[in-house]
Amino acid sequence: MPAKSKSVFFCNNCGYESAKWMGQCPGCRQWNTFTEEKVIRPAKSTSSSARRNAEVVTLNSVSEQQEDRRTTHIDELDRVLGGGLVAGSLTLVGGDPGIGKSTLLLQVCRLIAGDGAKVLYISGEESVRQIKLRARRIGNFTDNMLLLCENTLSVIEETIKAQKPEVVVIDSIQTMYDEEISSAPGSVSQVREATNILMQIAKGLNISIFIVGHVTKEGTVAGPRVLEHMVDTVLYFEGERHASYRILRSVKNRFGSTNEIGVFKMEENGLSEVRNPSEYMLLGKPVGAPGSIVSCSMEGTRPILIEIQALVCQTNFGIPRRQCTGTDFNRVNLLMAVLEKRLGMQLGNCDAYVNIAGGIKINEPAIDLGIAMAVISSFKNKPIDDKIVAVGEIGLSGEIRSAGMIATRVNEFKKLGFETAIVPKVCMDDLKDVQGIRIVPVSNVQDISALEI
Fold first, then answer.
1. How many structural domains is the chain composed of?
2. 318 domain-assigned
3. Residues 6 or more apart from 240 whose CB is under 8 A from it?
4. In this predicted model, what pLDDT tens digit does every residue of 160-200 receive, in sequence order?
5. CATH number, domain at 304?
6. Exposed site from 140, 188, 308, 383, fewest CB < 10 Å?
7. What's the CA gap between 334 and 315, in Å, rounded?
8. Domain limits at 425?
């Protein structure tokens, strides 16, 4: 029977499908996100030969054998993936233009191909010569590294089946298109169909596939939200384009934790791993400057030390200005309100600026104590000793609440040479075995103000 063609409306944000245009999407509640596209639906077959019996198994009969993982020889990437690359997995890598997505995946291809595995790099944006010029600064490649510049899905599918590579990179998913769909590449229909075909190839042939995805100005992967639901792993490559460091963060992982991050540094010959991000983030910390203190954030199982800076000065306007970089603006306003109420600090006529040095973004409540101490230090114009660090959450009544994995954080302080750690009093039982660093317990913000720092 001939295929049927009709027009439908898709939400560009979440992929919701409707027979008519609507101002507000019922799925994601966004306005004016529907676009019209023509789709071709094959007629349903009534043949009984297309029917097949599904195999039903009991849960207890399923084997608990660990997934077969392949190392990428990049420890930071292996950490984020959960221990390595799983065979038959579909991994989406998103990030801003020029952030280093293609460079990172090209380095992964080089290292995996060096192990003797066949790797296929498919680009719909660059020519073979352009890829060669970019690969020249990364290093030497073996003959196991194959290139294909194509954006037609049918050709790509046949090439993968003929070459039978172990790892495939698609750069990028927004450039791929299916000839049977009349909409333009990058549209909702094309992205969804391309991802579906690649998912079937990955699962059917047991091939690990990386997909590069462009992001919108809000920082999410462009195209329908269903794209992130279909893949096994979603990785975001973050960082300022003009800064030297990059952070690889997992927001979805069916084979591991979503709390781990990988830290990289952009250099002339590609991306290099930052194995000690705490030391890297504290480079250039000022000595004896008011409003500066070191705190600790947990990213998965990894403690990362950060420098918190605060600048408090008299305002020249009727309404004081508050600005935050690297942390939650509303959280800083809340902490300043607590300091005004519980300590009597006159911050209502002061401008306040809070910055997480290094450009990293931290929203963990455990850095509340560090922010409060930095604000107090800048307000009093009294520097904090460079060997003092602080970690803890602050409540609205001014109490200092516990921070998770406190022993790991304090051991990281000790490893980098800090001598005094200001911690919540309720965490002292977890720090009985910690030696080599002075522990100062505090129970409320009044205790902070009374400290000789």
1. 3
2. yes
3. 359
4. 999 999 999 999 888 898 888 777 787 777 888 889 999 99
5. 3.30.230.10
6. 140
7. 19
8. 280-450
